[in-house]
Amino acid sequence: MLAVADPETDDGPRTNRSATMRMCAVSREVRPVDELIRFVIAPSGEVVADLKRKLPGRGLWVSASRKMVAEAVRRHQFSKGFKRDVRAAATLAADTEVLLERFVGDALAMAAKAGQVLSGFTKVADALDRHGQGAVRALIHATDGAADGIRKLDAIAGQNGRDDGQSAGIPIVNVLTSEQLDLALGRSNVIHAALLAGPASDTFLSRSHMLVRYRMADDDRTAAKNVGGNLPIKDRANAHD
After folding, report:
1. Pairing relation of β-strands 172-173 and 136-141?
2. Over the stretch 123-159, which tens digit does the pLDDT of each residue have?
3. Rounded Cα gap, residues 140 and 191, in angstroms
4. pLDDT above 60 (res 237)
5. How large is the average pLDDT for residues 42-71?
């Protein structure tokens, strides 16, 4: 049975027995923790996002949506939830998105250190050709990459089929700029990368989906259900026109 949280706030991260469901302080809807962000009060008295859900102190949960975080600030929901005066910056929604981008970049850096990332158009194209049976976990493009290169690699990814002739179903991740990819991979002018299978790669994909949800959730409903539309992460195996 799923553990359900107490309303609005928790008493601390309680890592070993954390609830799997929490209540959004704005919508009052109980949702899986993967669809929410935990916020805590920093020693400075400011509200900050606890993306790893490990910071000490009471935590207040808000749906992983830029719109919802902005609404929480507008409604003074953090002071109400924590039952004390706290400083929730007007830029908290944007600041949280920046933290999420760093969160994704850190995961990509860890995947690279684990030898699970290849970068550069030629290396990526070769990896897609050689690993059409599933060793390539995802195809990564910079958000500011040239459309022609993106289109060519997407086509190669789509052409790699399984033994039954179906699509290989390689997710396409497009959530970080070239500058952010450079920083994560310790290289210059990174536009394309191939993510190879491994635990670190799974962490990167999980965090990328969280960033997509935060940016694109509409009316507090995750946009991930619209896979195959204009999402930065696409799974070709499940896409529909």
Report:
1. parallel
2. 999 999 875 546 889 999 999 999 999 999 999 888 6
3. 8
4. no
5. 95
CB 44 within 8 A of CB 9: no
H-helix or E-strand spanning residue 38: strand 36-41
| 70 and 185 co-located in one domain | no
Q: How many domains does the chain have?
A: 2
pTM: 0.82
Question: From residue 7, how far is each of 25, 56, 129, 150 by CA, in Å?
Answer: 8, 18, 51, 45
Q: What is the DSSP letter of 238?
A: G
- How far apart CA 73 and CA 57 sit, in angstroms, is 20
Structural domain range at position 113: 96-238
Cα(234)–Cα(171) distance, integer angstroms: 5
Give the model's pLDDT for residue 2: 43
Whole-angstrom distance, CA of residue 120 vs CA of residue 98: 25
CATH number of the structural domain spanning residue 37: 3.30.1230.10
Q: 140 pairs with which residues across the strands? A: 173, 193
Calculate helix-pair angle for 66-74, 92-113, nearest 10 degrees.
Answer: 140
159 and 212 housed in the same domain: yes
- Which residue type occupies 194? A
Q: What is the 3-state secondary structure (H, E, C) of 46-82?
A: EEEEECCCCCCCCEEEEECCHHHHHHHHHCCHHHHHH
> Among residues 31, 57, 89, which one ends one of the domains?
89
* Mean pLDDT for the stretch of residues 161-184: 77
Note whether 213 and 165 are same-domain residues. Answer: yes
Question: Are 121 and 228 contained in the same domain?
Answer: yes
